[in-house]
């Protein structure tokens, strides 16, 4: 069974631009969670989607948004990029929402200049 | 509020020795505790997890123990090998979210 895939793997943007990252979960998994990983803050939860609905949200500004499609694929968008948005963005999928085991993708490394 | 503390931040051991990483969580309602291993350039990989209805779980050289009263859980790696070198993260559930510890960089020297 194929794992979680994320595209693109690397991205360079400039301040003020916006970016869209994509995540395809493991086949059959209906929940997708997004995390931001930085050296200073570690792994921080952004949001979770299940059945095309946002089920949970972390403490990030409204510039960070996401959505999920009927095939469970998910996208996250960051608008008006700031230097501090440079990070590894990780997507994790699980069978369902709640206390389910999460499996991570390789991440998208975003560099904001 | 949600918080998971992880110690130590770095750990160096000789090949063949054991390694122990400890985590403390704050929410007594947490009932799922996974451990992830992250190698350079890769996403975190689940290596073992434990639910609150058991106190210990073992998988070959890896074991996790849970003390719900003290809100502690620990990862034990025996007979360490150089390929165990990575960053390890513990996590605990908090209102259906996973809250991660700050990570432990484990180095196993041959």
Structural class of chain A: mainly beta
Structure summary, number of beta strands of chain B: 11
The coarse silhouette of chain A is: globular
Largest sheet of chain A: 7 strands, mixed
Overall mean pLDDT of chain B stands at 94
Assembly of the depicted chains: heterodimer
Strand content of chain B: over 45%
Secondary structure class of chain B reads mainly beta
Biggest pleated-sheet summary of chain B: 6 strands, mixed
Radius of gyration of chain B: 13 Å
Q: Using the CA coordinates, give the radius of gyration of chain A.
A: 13 Å
- Overall pLDDT level of chain A: 94
Series of H and E elements of chain A = EEEEEEEEEEE
Overall form of chain B: globular
Helix content of chain A: under 10%
Identify the biggest protein-protein contact and residues per side: A-B, 22 and 23 residues
Write down how many β-strands of chain A occur, each being a DSSP E stretch of 2 or more residues: 11
By DSSP (H or I, 4+ residues per run), the number of helices of chain B equals 0
Summarize the structure in short.
Chain A has strands spanning 5-7, 10-13, 19-24, 31-38, 42-50, 53-57, 64-68, 74-78, 87-94, 103-104, 108-112. Chain A is an all-beta fold and 113 residues long. Chain A is globular, with a radius of gyration of 13 Å.
């Amino acid at each position: 069974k194929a794992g979680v895939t994320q595209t693109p793997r690397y991205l360079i943007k400039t301040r003020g631009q916006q970016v869209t990252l994509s995540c395809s979960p493991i086949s059959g998994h209906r929940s997708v969670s997004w995390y931001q990983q930085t050296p200073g803050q570690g792994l921080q939860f952004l949001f979770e989607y299940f059945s095309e609905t946002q089920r949970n949200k972390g403490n990030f500004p409204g510039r960070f948004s996401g959505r999920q499609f009927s095939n469970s694929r998910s996208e996250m968008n960051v608008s008006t990029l700031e230097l501090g948005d440079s990070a590894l963005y990780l997507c994790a999928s699980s069978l369902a929402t709640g206390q389910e085991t999460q499996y991570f993708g390789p991440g998208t490394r975003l560099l904001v200049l | 509020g949600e918080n998971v503390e992880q110690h130590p931040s770095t750990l160096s051991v000789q090949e063949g020795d054991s390694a122990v990483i400890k985590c403390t969580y704050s929410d007594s309602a947490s009932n799922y505790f996974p451990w992830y291993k992250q190698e350079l350039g890769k996403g975190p990989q689940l290596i073992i997890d434990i639910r609150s209805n058991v106190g210990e779980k073992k998988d070959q050289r890896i074991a996790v123990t849970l003390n719900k009263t003290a809100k502690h859980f620990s990862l034990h790696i025996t007979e360490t090998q150089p390929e165990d070198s990575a960053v390890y993260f513990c996590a605990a559930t908090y209102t259906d979210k996973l809250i991660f510890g700050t990570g432990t960089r484990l180095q196993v020297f041959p």
